Amino acid sequence: MSFKLLNISLAGLLLAGVAVAQSSEQHPPLITWKCTTSGGCVQQNTSVVLDKDSKFARGAAGSRTADDYAAMGVSTEGDAVTMYHYVQSGGTLNAASPRIYLRGEDGNYVLMSLLNQELSVDVDYSQVPCGENGAFYLSEMEADGGGSSGGASAGQGYCDAQCQGFCCNEMDILEANAKATAMTPHACSGNSCDSAGCGYNPYASGQRNFWATGGTVDTSKKFTVVTQFVGSGTLTQITRQYIQDGKQSNGGSISTCNGAFGGLAGMGQALGRGMVLAMSIWNDAVQQMAWLDSGNNGPCSIAESTPQNIQSQHPDTHVTFSNIRWGDIGSTTQS
């Protein structure tokens, strides 16, 4: 067990005892790239923004400081963002469980239009144990945050296919820990959504040592995840590839989905309109993430996957996403 915890300094905030008033939020910068086959990858000077409901951030949404992001376990460096679930503050281990969104230079969320495009990201899940979920996914949020106070720059407007906030299309690129992973489209028709989705999990498909510590995709080390949304006009297939140590592995595909909620075609329409990149780290007090990594879905036990056990045995659990690139199919991993 490791006890390398993220420590924060909130002295100024604690002395003040109130939210720090500022004219604008201090959004941590996160370099990303937009790519084409003809022009290569162009750097985007993007940043991240905390969800408006970030319970350990003392500043109000829209006026948060670097201390608020630290209090929520979020830090960036160059093209990498790291999120800790638990944060040590004043002798207390807070379950920060942050959720963040990608923000553009214009102050709006970045809308990724990904129909017949691909999205790639380098990931490090080595410190994400059973029962934990380092999520990297797309939500059909409004670019401006939906007109709420502070808009996108204040982390407003969240929605997903579980109808948190409100109902909208959701594409789970990665829901994962070091032991299991799933990619899952969740299409919606109005306020009715395919909350279960039609996911692909290598372990559930019989590939017991594909995504594993020391596996074909060795989750003890960093690797690249490439997700392609294939189809001209209509989404016909979602495919996955992994690249690690120069070796490429086929990670499966999804070609059918529940038509009652729009299916792949509906998901493709949302991808064509543009979706917002969300990232989070969380655990599950109700199901202990069994739908992701226990039973037929993965090798984890319920006992080791409870939030209490994770906090006790893995208080430093964290995930790092880096080198985020999107654009033409085949363009994001060109050398």
Explain how this protein is built.
The chain is mainly beta and 335 residues long. Helix content is 10%, strand content 38%. The chain has helices spanning 11-16, 66-71, 263-273, 290-293, 307-313, and strands at 6-7, 29-36, 40-50, 74-77, 80-84, 86-89, 92-95, 99-103, 111-112, 117-124, 132-139, 170-176, 181-186, 188-189, 192-193, 211-212, 217-218, 223-230, 237-244, 247-254, 275-283, 318-328. The strands form four sheets. The chain has a 15-stranded mixed beta sheet that branches. Strands 1-6-7 form a three-stranded mixed beta sheet, with no helix packed on it. A two-stranded antiparallel ribbon has the order 14-15. A hairpin with a 2-residue loop joins strand 19 (237-244) and strand 20 (247-254). The longest helix is centred in the last third of the chain and has 11 residues, at 263-273. The chain starts with 5 loop residues before the first strand and ends in a 7-residue tail after the last strand.
* Portion of residues within helices: 10-25%
Low-confidence stretches: 1-6, 8-23
Roughly what is the average pLDDT, rounded to an integer?
93
For the secondary structure, the number of strands is 22
If helices are DSSP runs of H or I spanning 4 or more residues, what is the number of helices?
5
Quaternary state of the chains? single chain
Order of helices and strands: EHEEHEEEEEEEEEEEEEEEEEHEHHE
Q: How is the main sheet built?
A: 15 strands, mixed
State the distance separating the first and last CA atoms: 38 Å
Strand content: 35-45%
Q: What structural class should be given to the helix and strand makeup?
A: mainly beta
Radius of gyration in whole Å, from Cα? 19 Å
Shape: globular
